Structures are given as C-alpha cells and as structure tokens.
Amino acid sequence: MQTDGVNLWRQIAEALTQEIGEDVFAAGARLPSAPDLAVRFGVNRHTVLRALGHLQDEGLIRIERGRGAYVVHKAIPYSMGARTRFEENLYGLNKVPGRTLISLTDLPASKSIAAGLAIQIGEEATMATLLGDADGIPLSYGRNYFPKTRLPEIREVFRQAGADIEKRLSITACLAAVGITDFRRTSVRIRSRQPNAEEAKRLQISMTESVLELSVTNVDQNNVPVMYAVTCFSSSRVEFVMDM
C-alpha cells in the first residue's frame, strides 16, 4: 500500500468505505478478519484495527467481540407523528412492510400496562407480540396490549390475521375490524438499552448492540386508550424523525 502522505489506516478505511458503498460488502455481511485484511493491505494488525475502529465510529460497521466486524444496515428514517403508521413509513421509502404474529395471549394488567390502557391493575388485557420487518430485514419486536373489556373481539381478530399468510398483518386493519377506525399516539417514551436474548434472536442482532425501546399509548377519537405498546427497534437499522 502506498503511503503518499496519507495515514495507512485512513487509506484502508477509505478503501473499505468505497467497497461497502459499492456493495462489495453488503449490509449485514461480515468483513474479512483483521489478520486477513492485514495481509491484503500489507500492514500490521494494529493498523487494520484502527481503520475498523474508524469505520465503526462512522456508523458503517459494528464490531462484535469474538465474532468480527459486520456492515451496518442503512438506518431507515421512521417518522413519528400522532397518526403515522408502520406501513405508511415503509411504503413511502419503497420498502415492503411485514409483520409476524409471534404470540397471542390474555393476561392480568401490570401497573404499567394498566396505566397505559387506563384500566385497573389486574384487569385482563390482550397481548399480541409482533415482529416487524422491511424487505425481510427485522426492524422491531414488541408487545402490544389491548383492553379486553373494551375490545373483547381483538384477540380473535389478531388470531385470524396472523394465520392468513396471503395478507400482511396490520394493526390498523385489526383495530378497524373491531370498530376503531381512527386512533392516534398521545405519548411516546424512548430509551436505549441492551436487548434480552429473545429480542436479539428475533431481531437478528448481537447482544452487544443496543435497541431503542418505545413505550407508546394510542387513543381513539374519544381520547380513550385502545392500545399500549412496548416495542424495541434495532438501533442500527432505524432512526426516528419526530414529525411536529
């Protein structure tokens, strides 16, 4: 490799950046190991590690201890307004949205669920656990809670929607099926944390990669809560844009 006044590690970083941009290394792909890159560029391992560290700082790759360096999926701008929907966001970006029903159950409301749904602690709520994706790439994994007393048919609606492989599962469509034709977000709380084993598995990410957890309350046209959701998003695949 020629020095020509430019640091060797920077030349390596620029070469890899170009190859990532040209899809020589596609999103999600594992880069060659540091020793292999050192041989390729004719430098020592520490020079390669500095270049990889720079690419990680730039958000182009993520380095997983003991596993290697992986190309980061380009973050999807996710508009977060009162009435913006998952499907609308992705269709607007020419991506195909998908949702998979992972589990469906009724359970007594905990303190946080009861507060989100404006029901009594211990009152039954229906929980639908959903995995959301864009063009087949997992983006979100979350638990969606509905007040069973107010929406007694919602569990069966989700069961049928989840079983119909010919149609894309839509929360908007499921709520419309039980008479909720308009709903909006009234509160959103976002925090960063590490994923648990189930979340990392479903999102196909490392346990060391952080997720963005959103706690959201949705109300109907009468300002009555119809859904409380706690959803985690892969932090490297989604960036939130607040539409004010």
Automatic annotation (TrEMBL):
Domain HTH gntR-type intervals: 6-74
CDD domains: WHTH_GntR
Matches recorded under Pfam families: GntR (PF00392), UTRA (PF07702)
Keyword DNA-binding: yes
NCBIfam families reported in the protein's UniProt record: C_P_lyase_phnF
PANTHER family: MANNOSYL-D-GLYCERATE TRANSPORT/METABOLISM SYSTEM REPRESSOR MNGR-RELATED, MANNOSYL-D-GLYCERATE TRANSPORT_METABOLISM SYSTEM REPRESSOR MNGR-RELATED
The name this protein goes by in its record: GntR family transcriptional regulator, phosphonate transport system regulatory protein
